[in-house]
Specification:
- The protein is an all-beta fold.
- It contains no helices and five strands.
- The chain has a five-stranded antiparallel sheet with strand order 1-2-3-4-5, with no helix packed on it.
- A hairpin with a 5-residue loop joins β4 and β5.
- The protein is globular and about 30 Å long.
Length: 54
């Protein structure tokens, strides 16, 4: 299991943090790797997610 706290990326293009319940858009890009977007549609790296801060 990943140590990031994320429950995972669904094939529908969403992610959910298993620790704080945050959700947003997410997908895997062949060039950029895992790409997540917050509730404001701003891209960020998975390790930049701050749990509990909505």
């Amino acid at each position: 299991m990943a140590s990031s706290g994320f429950a995972g990326i669904s094939l529908a293009g969403t992610w959910e943090c298993g620790s704080c319940g945050a959700t947003g858009a997410g997908w895997y890009d062949e060039d950029d790797g895992l790409v997540l977007h917050d509730e404001n549609n701003q891209p960020f790296q998975p390790d930049e997610h701050e749990c509990g801060e909505a």
